[in-house]
Each structure stands twice: as C-alpha cells, then as structure tokens.
Design brief:
Length: 268
C-alpha cells in the first residue's frame, strides 16, 4: 500500500465519490484542503489503483480525522482500516492530548475498538436563507479566536483565521459565530455561547438567516448537548441527520460553550 498527497486528479475523484455518498463538502473546506492543509490529506493506492482517502488535520494540542472515504466496490478489503490507522499514526507523531472525529453508526464500533469514546452527538440542522443582507462583521476575528480558545480549551487560530477570510462574524450578547459563504450552501460555525443565553442565541440565528441569500441552504452542525433544539426549530431550522462526536484522550474532555462545529464534521 502507498499513501500519498492528493494530485489534482485524486481531488476530482474524491469529490466524485463524496457526491455519490451524498456528502456535503463545504467550499471553505475544499479551499483549505487544496492549499493550507494539503499536507494533511492523503490518498491510498494499491497496485497502482486508488482505493480511498483520509484527512488528518493537526492543531496545537489536538487533531481531527475526517474524510475517510472508500468506494463501495473497495470496501471489506481492509482499506478503511489502513487509512484510519495511517491518519492516527500521522497525528500521534505530534503527541496530541486528544484526537477527534465524527462517526456514523457503521463506523462507531471500528473507532471504539481503537479506544475512541462517544462524547456527544452532532446534529445537522438546515434552513433556507431569507435575505442576503450585507454580512458586515459584528466583531474582529481576534475576538472569535479568543472565545474559540476558551470554549475548545486550545487555540485553533489557523482554522478560524483561514475560515474568516471569506466569512463574517455575527454576535448577540456573549454568543458569537462565523457565517461562511459557499457555492451550493452556506454554513454557520463555529457557533460559541459560554452562557447559552436562549434570547441571545435566537437573535444570533435570526441574524445569520437574514444574512444568507434566498435559495441557499444554511447548514449548522450542532452539538446535541447545546440544548438548542427548540431555539433552532423556532428559528426555522430542521434536523437532517446525526453522527457521533468521538474523542481519543487519556484525560477527561469537556467542551464549554461549543454550540456548533466550524466545519461539516471533518476538521473541527
């Protein structure tokens, strides 16, 4: 087996296979994985044939495994396990205190056998944009980076700064989040709320919906523990699916004020 960084042809094949699985790969994630984080995205070849993909993004104290994709015709041959083990070994070279991933029902037992534990559930919520009002930033990027650091327990400034290049920060009270534009869909995340104030978070959701153009889906990958289901439903969102949030760590892990991920499940 050979692991290598993606070529342009590999990337096109990844997007083709992802579409066949009905995956949503955000515009921002595509941009990052083809530029800043290209060294963190791998293709697996055997006997000259492409067998699958995986990403392994490293932060200061943690890592994220995502985009583990093997086409149906290649499943059951050990390629998924090989990709996962390669990504985990790649991240562990930096001795992270924890490694994260989101898991489907089918993948969860595989990750549990490798020591990962379920810490929360990620629910994907969606609604349609209602206005496309000018998305001027309500706060500087430094404020979002600082709050993200408090909520996640580490600085993820490379991720937040990169996503903020095209996005706009919305704020209501102590709650804050990043609205990310896209081609087919927009995304809201990270969404952070240290006090979980219901009134402020309802205002925040209404604000980002009003800043999303009509005809565009607005997606949010929300932690179930945020207890924001009623706020989301009364703001016009509907749930479209769920995955488990899992972590590998020798120490207790807690997320304080994290409402939603910054990505669609693969980079945190």
């Amino acid at each position: 087996m050979q692991f290598r960084l993606l070529t342009e042809e590999d990337w096109r094949q990844f997007m083709c296979w992802a579409a066949q699985e009905n995956w949503r790969v955000s515009f921002q994630e595509q941009r990052l994985l083809q530029s800043l984080w290209r060294p963190y995205f791998f293709a697996l070849y055997k006997e000259g044939v492409l067998r699958g993909f995986v990403s392994a993004v490293a932060y200061k104290e943690s890592g994220w495994i995502g985009n583990l994709l093997v086409p149906e015709k290649e499943r059951g041959k050990g390629f998924g396990s090989a990709l996962f083990d390669y990504a985990l070994q790649f991240l562990q070279k930096a001795t992270p205190t924890r490694v994260w991933l989101t898991a489907s029902a089918a993948g969860q037992p595989i990750y549990e056998r490798r020591g990962f534990k379920v810490i929360d559930r990620i629910d994907r919520w969606a609604t349609g944009g209602q206005g496309g009002l000018p998305a001027e930033a309500d706060a500087p990027v430094a404020d979002l980076v600082a709050l993200d650091t408090v909520c996640w327990g580490e600085s993820r400034s490379p991720l937040i700064n990169a996503l903020s290049d095209d996005g706009s920060i919305s704020r209501a009270g102590k709650s804050m989040g990043l609205l990310q534009p896209g081609v087919d869909a927009w995304q809201f995340g990270p969404w952070l709320s240290p006090d979980r104030n219901v009134v402020d978070n309802r205002k925040l959701l209404q604000l980002v919906v009003s800043r999303t153009p009509p005809g565009k889906d607005l997606l949010v990958d929300v932690l179930h523990s945020s207890e924001m289901e009623l706020v989301l439903r009364t703001s016009g969102f509907e749930r479209r699916g769920s995955n488990q949030l899992m972590v590998l760590s020798d120490e207790p892990v807690s997320l304080n004020g994290v409402m939603a991920l910054a990505s669609l499940g693969s980079i945190g």
